[in-house]
Amino acid sequence: MSTLTASAPAAGAAPAIRGRVTQRRVLHSEWIKLRSLRSTFYTLLTAVVMMIGFGLLFCAVNAHNWPTMSAHDRADFEPALTSVRGYIVAQLAVGVLGVLVVSGEYATGMIRATLAAVPLRLPVLWAKAGLYMAVVWTLMTASALIAFFSGQSLLSPKHIDTTLGEPGVLRVVLGTGLYLTLVGLLGVAIGALIRNTAGGIATVFGILMVLPALAETLPASWADHVNQWLPSNAGQSVLSLHHQAHTLAPWTGLAVFCLYALLALAGAAVALRRRDA
After folding, report:
1. Distances from the Cα of 217 to the Cαs of 223, 224, 236, 253, in angstroms?
2. Other CB atoms within 10 Å distance of the CB of residue 154
3. CB 57 within 8 A of CB 117
4. How far is C-alpha 46 from the chain's CA centre?
5. What confidence tens digit (pLDDT) does each residue in 213-258 have?
6. Can you tell me the distance from the alpha carbon of 140 to that of 157, in angstroms, rounded to the nearest whole number?
7. Surface-to-core class of residue 225, CB atoms within 10 Å of its CB (0-12 exposed, 13-18 middle, 19+ buried)
């Protein structure tokens, strides 16, 4: 009798309301986590500063050295690419934060609570990847446009600037944001695959920076065929104003890089479903 009385709900008490797990709610939860981390703000700020700052630096140096440049160097000069060349450094910040978006939860153990709240698991991965891609695309596209217009203002006194209306220039500028977005997606996928911050960051750094350097040591007959298919080299094809020999076409290269990132994300999805948190 006493047991039954104790287990009965108190008179007038509101019944517990359990909300259904939806992708929208998972996205909202991941957005709260992403914006509440200090590392998110500082890392993305670093990417923005590097993107704009290095673009201005490269443009200023080229404008200063233009009168003494050789004819060969002048012929190879691409004002659009020069103004967004800060992507080389920004990609490291974007890739590192992509890893941290996932590996940070594994390091603190918060991932157990996250997966307990979302038993199907995969909506968590889709939310993290999709949300981070949207943030990176917005910030990096805006940064590329700012870097472009600011850089061209430094080049205009030497009459070596360009405009978005010139053939291929808009592709280079907007392609910078797309390339960095895919770097972010790759970082999230690797973070979910490896689950370790140090290992994930090392892997991203190796893919973006070390692999291309190692490929340069290959015999020329091999390097011409291998280099163009490496993830970062393929993705960066979209940033080249003129198609060069032994490189993929701009949009083809970006599509290949996208395929690499999606394959890594697919592997992360399989691992998330099969492995314990």
Report:
1. 8, 11, 20, 22
2. 23
3. no
4. 13
5. 888 888 877 887 888 999 999 999 999 888 777 789 999 999 999 9
6. 27
7. exposed
